[in-house]
Amino acid sequence: MRMPKYAVPLSVLGTVAGCTVLLKDYMGGSRYRGNERIAGKTVVITGANTGIGKETAKELARRGGRIILACRDMDKCELVKKEIISETSNKSIECRKLDLASLDSVRAFCETINATESHLDILINNAGVMMCPKMLTEDGLEMQLGVNHFGHFLLTNLLLDKLKASAPSRIIIVSSLAHTRGTINFDDLNSAKAYSKRGAYEQSKLANLLHQRELVKRLEGTGVTVNSLHPGVVDTELGRHLPFTKSLFSSIVLWPIKFILMKTPVQGAQTTIRLAVDPTLESVTGKYFSDCQEKEPAEQALDDNAAKRLWAISEAWTGSNVQQVL
């Protein structure tokens, strides 16, 4: 009996489809399976109006937490707040204005949190900027380092007393695998002499891990843990400055590749969620995670001298008139 002429093409198509599904599932990474509740705990999440931050906020709201959405765009924040309440039935969701590109905004946010919140159990430094054209923050800092590192550095420092008083508490830093290619250019930290979009991003992500390294030492014995993570390659607004997003043709051509190889925001949020709620990590600190598992960071992220030097500069640049010390 002869096979129908369409049997082979259909068989090939089915094989390709099956392989695509398996590859998509594999690239999606691990999913955190714990079902812990965090009722009674207060969580601050920066950049919670979109992407990984939004999905993290939703999941932690489902688990009963009081969630403070720290966002620059309050209109978007209010829409996300309504969405989270609708999907989770958790009404303990608050919007607070935070622009990490403005140190005054960071100070105002922290002043409000410290004055109005009785405790703060989890701080998630999630917001970020990636590979943008050269821009400066309100304070004259290179935008990627200013938002990804300096803004979160000041935010964390100003909330430390509240976190210590709420111990055991957790600080979670969303970094990136890009830190492995990063270097801290202390001779031109603010990229005044030369600017590379990629280099500045990689430097800012390495700065996240060096911030963690020094912070862990300073928090020893306080009950406050600090851990960082790589969320994976995630399809979010963070990539809006990448070249292929600027062209409709490129976006269409590359869509199948993005669909297969990139995580969804829900998948990208899984490691953050584990670090926030897993009881086995209550006393774990100073570690780096990816796909919900502990990983070894790059050698340059373990440089104690660089961590101390960056800390001193960060204190100076966020605690005084930045223009005077650049």
UniProtKB/TrEMBL annotation:
<dbReference type="InterPro" id="IPR002347">
    <property type="entry name" value="SDR_fam"/>
</dbReference>
<keyword id="KW-0560">Oxidoreductase</keyword>
<protein>
    <submittedName>
        <fullName>Retinol dehydrogenase 13-like</fullName>
    </submittedName>
</protein>
<dbReference type="Pfam" id="PF00106">
    <property type="entry name" value="adh_short"/>
</dbReference>
<dbReference type="InterPro" id="IPR036291">
    <property type="entry name" value="NAD(P)-bd_dom_sf"/>
</dbReference>
<dbReference type="GO" id="GO:0016491">
    <property type="term" value="F:oxidoreductase activity"/>
</dbReference>
